Amino acid sequence: MIKLIVGLGNPGAEYEATRHNAGFWLVDQLARMGGVTLRVEGRFHGLAARARLWDQEIWLLKPSTFMNRSGLSVVSLARFYKILPDEIAVAHDEMDLPSGTVKLKRGGGAGGHNGLKDISAHLTTQDYWRLRIGVGHPRNSAGGGGEREDVINFVLKPPRREEQQAIDEAIDRSIAPLGLLAKGESERAMLELHTNR
User: Fold this and answer.
1) DSSP symbol at 159
2) Which sign does the torsion angle of CA 73, 171, 113, 130 carry?
3) Is residue 154 marked as binding?
4) Residue 7 region, left (φ>0) first, then alpha (ψ -120 to 50), else beta?
5) 41 CB-contact burial (10 Å; exposed 0-12 / middle 13-18 / buried 19+)
6) How is the chain split into domains, by residue range?
7) What pTM did the predictor assign?
8) 70-103 pLDDT, tens per residue?
9) What is the pLDDT of residue 141?
10) 3-state secondary structure of 5
11) I need a labelling partner for 148 at 20 to 30 A (CA). Which of 42, 124, 136, 186 fits?
12) Strand order in the sheet with 56-63
């Protein structure tokens, strides 16, 4: 069962619409669904709220540290409320998936994602859930060369209109499977998410 859903992103208006903030977008949607407002929680280094979603009490968290320091926020809230790593789902942007694709998995490496690296280091385990929201890759975009500099610039820029629409639809599609995951029905959640296109 899931007790904490974390959305990864960078704080500040200049990053709000960028691909790197796809995790924030998902948590904002869940907050709207739950009728809650995320509030600054200094002790958790982020914006947090407890919401009633899918008949469960679930914490929502958007770290206000920058992406590569996300673990501090996650571990602070998880320790305070005695939430175990396998009761945490982290929503994040995923360049290895095209825009409009969303995948759910438990454990595994960080795949070069600095937010996941820091969370794994702080939790001292990789055994938590990840909701991977595809944002595409610069090598697959017009004019993208796939170099490291391109990658950094790519995630820190807003998606094109059609990409944004595809990402929004993927987030919408992930809500019901997340509800199944929250209730402990992980296999059903993955089946529903990965077979419904």
Assistant:
1) P
2) positive
3) no
4) beta
5) middle
6) 4-195
7) 0.93
8) 999 999 999 999 999 999 999 999 999 999 999 9
9) 57
10) strand
11) 124
12) 39-41, 46-53, 56-63, 4-7, 88-94, 129-134, 102-106
E strand intervals along 101-189: 102-106, 129-134
Please confirm, yes or no, whether 20 is among the known catalytic residues.
Answer: yes
Catalytic residue among 20, 92, 113, 122: 20
User: What does CATH list as the number for 4-195?
Assistant: 3.40.50.1470
Residue found under tokens 């610039």: 153
For residues 189 and 86, give the distance between their C-alpha atoms in angstroms, rounded to a whole number.
Answer: 15
Contact (Cβ atoms closer than 8 angstroms) between residue 18 and residue 158 = yes
**Collapsed DSSP state (helix, strand, coil) of residue 7:** strand
* pLDDT tens digit sequence for 116-165: 999 999 999 999 999 999 999 887 655 444 455 587 788 889 999 999 99
Was 15 annotated as part of a binding site? yes
Q: Convert 44-60 to b/e letters by CB count within 10 Å (16 or more is b).
A: bbbbbbebebbeeebbb
10 is in an annotated binding site: no
Q: Which residue has the tokens 């990402």?
A: 167
Three-state secondary-structure class, residue 118:
helix
Structure tokens at 6: 């974390």
Residue in the block written with tokens 């796809």: 22
